[in-house]
Amino acid sequence: MNKIRYRKLRKYKYQILEDYNLNTPLKPEKDIVASYIHLTMNGDMLIKARYAWDGPSGPTIDTKNFMRGSLVHDAFYQLMREKYLHIDQRDAADKLLQKHCREDGMSAFRAWIVYLGVKWFGKKSALPNEEEQEIYQAP
Fold first, then answer.
1. Per-residue pLDDT tens digits for 28-59
2. How far apart are CA 57 and CA 16, in angstroms?
3. Whole-Å CA distances, 62 to 89, 106, 129, 134
4. Collapsed DSSP state (helix, strand, coil) of residue 26
5. Burial (0-12, 13-18, 19+ Cβ within 10 Å), 96
6. Which pLDDT band holds residue 3 (cuts at 50, 70, 90)?
7. Which of 23, 24, 68, 74 suits a disulfide with 53, CB 3.0-4.6 Å?
8. How far apart are CA 133 and CA 139, in angstroms?
C-alpha cells in the first residue's frame, strides 16, 4: 500500500501532513500550478503538505483503504472546479479513485460501488461554481 500521512480537521475533515507525489493518467495540455496542487503535462502530480480535503463523500465510511483515493480524487475535482482541467477528465479521475482503492486493499465490489457513486452523482462536485468564480475575477 502506498501510504499517506494525514490528520483529522474540523472543517474539511482531513489535512495531508507531507507532500504526496504520484504519476497519473491525467495529462493536461500545460503544467498546472495551483496553491496546493501541481500537475505536469506528463501526469506527475504533487499534492503539497497542508492540503485539506473532505475525505470520502456520500453514504460511505471513511476507511484507510479509501483515504488516498479520496485525496487524489478530491484534488482532481478541485482542479476541474477551478477550470485548470476540463470536465471531460472526470471519468479518468473516477477510475483512478477506483484503482487506488483496490491497490489499498478495498474489495473489488466496494471499489466498483465507489466508482459508480462518483460516476453517477459526482458531476456537480466537479463543475465550476460560477458565482464563486466571480469573486476571484480581477476588476
1. 999 999 999 999 999 999 999 999 999 998 88
2. 17
3. 25, 12, 26, 33
4. coil
5. buried
6. confident
7. 74
8. 13
The reported pTM is 0.85
3-state secondary structure of 49: coil
How many residues does the structure list for the chain?
A: 139
Block residue for cell numbers 475575477: 137
Query: Residue 91 belongs to what H/E stretch?
Result: helix 90-103
**Helices 108-121/64-81 angle, 10° precision:** 20
**Which residue shows C-alpha cell 489535512?**
15
Of 15, 8, 28, the residue nearest 76 (C-alpha)? 28
Torsion-angle region of 102 (φ positive above 0: left; ψ -120 to 50: alpha; else: beta): alpha
